[in-house]
Amino acid sequence: MLKQLDWLVTFVKQYGKDTPKTIIFGNTLYAVASVMNYLMMSLGANAFHTNTSKKRQDCLLGIFHCLSSKSTKKDC
Question: Which distant-in-sequence residues (6+ apart) come within 8 Å of 20 by Cβ?
């Protein structure tokens, strides 16, 4: 089922930081984490604004949920 997101992987690889924000909803935190893990593994270094960085603030992907900290919610 996660292969259905390959279009997004291709899009992020092509456009990087210029990729429009895309929201993916999940019923559970487990489902959201599964999607995030799939995207991160599929994108590799392309998941980051600077391909040499592995810092959270340089990551093009993020998770937002009810348990997110206030600072994370503010950044989104």
Answer: none
- 76 pLDDT band, cuts 50/70/90, is low
- Nearest CA to 12 among 40, 44, 47, 41? 47
State the Cα–Cα distance between residues 48 and 61, nearest whole angstrom: 8
Rounded-to-integer distance, Cα 23 and Cα 19, Å: 12
| pTM of the entire predicted model | 0.79
d(CA 32, CA 63): 8
List the beta bridge partners of residue 48: 59
First and final CA of the chain: distance in angstroms?
A: 27
